[in-house]
From TrEMBL:
Pfam families: DUF4142. Residues 49-179 form the DUF4142 domain. This is DUF4142 domain-containing protein. InterPro entries: DUF4142, Ferritin-like. It comes from the Bacteria.
Length: 204
């Protein structure tokens, strides 16, 4: 009887192990909410890049809304003030959307800008007039260029339909804001990062 019991236990372990590996990785989650996990949602799998995208959109609003409002007091340039108001207004709407979508998908969002953004805000708080205008345009234009790359990658490859739809909205907003900032005439294009060289053609 003891041998039979041992064999039965081994058989159970083998079956249980096979069952675990047969479960799709996208359906496995843990209580820790590890950012490296894949989770299954009604709109499809949700991965690390999807969650990072939502975090980046949230943090963009956390510094661009107050900065756009700040421009009304720190700048003397009518166009810079106009662009600041538009950026702030667009991010208020975008922030409402990202918070609603994140709550639906179970993604925790930050409540403060990241370290770089806090540094830019501190820098701008010490400036006014034409000096403010230049740094305002350069910091915001540079930041939009970086986030555009991240959003475009998610838009191209996400497996989640709701993330895909929201990424399209975000791409449109980022493109609009880059153009608005460039319209101030204050962007130092020479200071923008050089695009990477094109990748070689894949071997046939």
């Amino acid at each position: 009887m003891r041998l039979v019991e041992v064999l039965a236990a081994l058989a159970f372990l083998v079956i249980a192990t096979i069952a675990v590996f047969m479960i799709a990785p996208n359906a496995i989650t843990s209580a820790s909410g590890d950012a490296g996990e894949w989770t299954q949602t009604e709109s499809g799998p949700l991965g690390p890049a999807d969650r990072d995208f939502l975090v980046k959109v949230r943090q963009a609003g956390l510094w661009e809304i107050p900065t756009g409002q700040q421009a009304q007091e720190r700048s003397n340039n009518p166009r810079v003030k106009e662009v600041g108001l538009q950026l702030a207004a667009d991010h208020v709407k975008l922030d409402e959307q990202v918070r609603a979508l994140s709550a639906k998908l179970g993604v925790q969002l930050p409540s403060t800008p990241n370290a770089d953004q806090q540094g830019w805000m501190a820098e701008l708080s010490g400036l006014s007039g034409t000096a403010y205008d230049k740094v305002f345009a350069d910091r915001l234009r540079g930041a939009h260029g970086k986030v555009f790359q991240a959003v475009a990658v998610v838009r191209a490859g996400t497996k989640n339909s709701e993330i895909r739809a929201f990424a399209q909205v975000a791409v449109d907003v980022v493109m609009k804001h880059m153009s608005l900032l460039e319209s101030t005439g204050k962007v130092d294009f020479a200071a923008l990062p050089t695009p990477p060289p094109p990748s070689p053609n894949p071997a046939k």
